[in-house]
Design brief:
Layout: H1 2-31, H2 40-56, H3 62-83, H4 93-115, H5 126-129, E1 131-133, E2 138-140, H6 141-163, H7 165-175, H8 177-182, H9 187-208, H10 219-222, H11 224-234, H12 239-259, H13 266-278, H14 283-287
Helix pairs in contact: 1-6, 1-9, 1-11, 1-12, 2-3, 2-4, 2-9, 3-9, 6-7, 7-9, 11-12, 12-13
Amino acid sequence: MVQTFFSIAVDAFAFGMVLFVITIGMSMTMGLMRVVNLAHGAFAMIGGYVASYAIQALDFGYATALLIAICTTIVVAIPIERLLYRRIYRAPELTQVLMTIGITFCIIGIANYIAGPTLKIIPLPEFLRGPVDLGFRSIAAYKLSAIAIGGGVAIALWFLIERTAFGVYIRATVDNAAMAGSLGVNAKLIYAASFAIAVGLAALGGIVGAQMMPIEPYYALRYMVMFLVVVSIGGAGSIRGALVACLLLGAIDTTGRFFVPEYGEFFSYLAVVVLVSLFPNGLLARAA
């Protein structure tokens, strides 16, 4: 019984951390930049596709492929941000939803045309394939790495937003772009940099979490609702809220699939209905 509980806890924690790495960028764009970016999952998919190609076709190492995939995703995202997203930063939410859904379908179509409608494998390096013996229990190395990466991202992002001038510039630009501009803040550069960070994190999460959330042609649509749920429950722009929401949803989803796999994602969405009803402004917003 204890071993079963421990196994579920580790799986849930790892899944929650992967979900956090992917969705925290979406939370940033919605909370700090005020953009409903439903195409966020598409950028995670791009990162996964590029990493798979770099490892399998070009024979790059895992770390090199990871870096290439993140940089490639950012390079692809920058002109999209410049040509499309800048037009909807102050637009109504419905306009943002329609635009970003359209971008999602375009990216899915291009990915299917280039890479084909097949599931993409991202092979793990040797040191992540086996178990790690903790003395009382062995844990898959890639799950421990996912937990470590998620924790590192949470700390680094909190420090960037809360303790650096860049975070101040983001908040000032969102609150009053004209005033921030008069004080010398380049709003366009701040938005572009924030967007690049968000899509880079999406790519990182898509690659690191490929063992739990496989990269496939309709990845962006399959997980779109889950990503939105995290932002809704955690509160847009809240790092702590997103982390708590991801861990909570990870625990519910993993536990439900372990004990009653035939119900699929039923318990996850049931929990979403209950949590959104109880905490419409996010888990931590009510406590504040």
